[in-house]
Structures are given as C-alpha cells and as structure tokens.
Design a protein that fits this description.
Strand content: 15-25%
CATH superfamily of the largest domain: Glutaredoxin
Shape: elongated
Strand order of the largest sheet: 5-4-3-6-7
Radius of gyration: 23 Å
CATH class of the largest domain: Alpha Beta
Order of helices and strands: HEEEHEHEHEE
CATH topology of the largest domain: Glutaredoxin
Length: 178
C-alpha cells in the first residue's frame, strides 16, 4: 500500500512540474512573438493599416521615375522574390488581377527583390501589366514599406497629403466564372 501511495504522489508531483513548465514555455512564446512583430520579422512584414508610406524615389525597369506621390487611387503594391515558392504561385493570380482591375484601380506596382536572372524573368512577366521595380531587399520601395516577408501585398491610397496603407494582403480579384 505504501508503494502505491508513493507512486501516486510521484505522478502528481511530475504533473505539477509539467504544468509549470508548460505555462513558462507559453509565456516565453508570447514574449518572442511580440519581439518578432516589433523587429519587422514574422507576422508584421509591412507597415500597418492606416500608416503613412514614407517618401521614396526609384526608377522602374522602363526607366520611369516612381515616387510615393505617383501612387494613384487604390494602388495595389506587390512585393515578390524569385527565390520564394509562394511568390511563384502568386504571380499568375497577380497578373490576372492587374488585367481585370487595372482600368478601375490604375496600374499596380510590382517590386521584385533581387538582382539575379530569376528577378529579370519575374520583372519581364510582371511588366506587361504592372509598373515594375527591381531592387535589393532594403531598396527604396521595400524599405519604405518595411517589407521583410514575401510575397506581400498592400493596397494604398492617397490620404491627407500623403499615401497611406489601406489594406494588407487584399484578396486578389479574379474573373467571374474561373
């Protein structure tokens, strides 16, 4: 009988230690999630909704100047990396959206991050329907938007003399019946 009581006490003590350790791990995970969000990694990959886009100036692949002020009404801005598999999957949907919504919302902007051969292929595909910028990771546009994860989509619009983020990861439009 004493053996049985000792076993039950031991199992109870191990269970209490397990619960305490689990609570500690959950608390640390919450801390790390908050740190990642503040550092620009993880879930907070771009400016937040309502935030103003800082001023930037860059040159498109066609040699045109693109600035914060040249972003029109309801401009979709997409950030892509040729080394990112989800980006490769999203590009066709982005192209369809640009063709369908282009007349209503204006020409979207596609930012391709990277300077290799893959970036040139992405830029060529996207330049048919979008204003395309090819730059390094902290280039003028991706730096202004605070992009650290790919793909990232942002809908921006003029607001109060500047340009503000209206929506993060907007649902892309596709033609009816597809």
């Amino acid at each position: 009988m004493e053996f049985l009581v000792a076993a039950v006490v031991l199992v109870g003590a191990i269970s209490v230690v397990n619960i305490l350790l689990t609570v500690g791990v959950v608390a640390r995970l919450k801390e790390h999630t908050a740190l990642l969000a503040r550092s620009g990694h993880g879930a907070a990959a771009v400016l937040g909704v309502g935030e103003m886009v800082p001023e930037f100036t860059t040159t498109t692949v066609r040699g045109e100047t693109l600035t914060t002020g040249s972003l029109g009404e309801e401009t979709l801005v997409g950030f892509f990396s040729p080394s990112c598999d989800p980006c490769k999957e999203l590009v066709p949907e982005f192209l369809v959206h640009a063709q369908v919504a282009g007349d209503r919302q204006g020409r979207p902007v596609a930012v391709v991050v990277g300077k290799d051969e893959g970036a040139a292929e992405f830029a060529a595909r996207l330049s048919e329907v979008a204003t395309v910028v090819v730059e390094d990771l902290r280039g003028p546009v991706s730096g202004a938007f605070g992009v650290s994860a790919f793909p990232s989509l942002v809908l921006v619009a003029p607001e109060g003399g500047g340009v503000a983020v209206r929506e993060l990861e907007p649902k892309l439009l596709t033609p009816q019946g597809s």
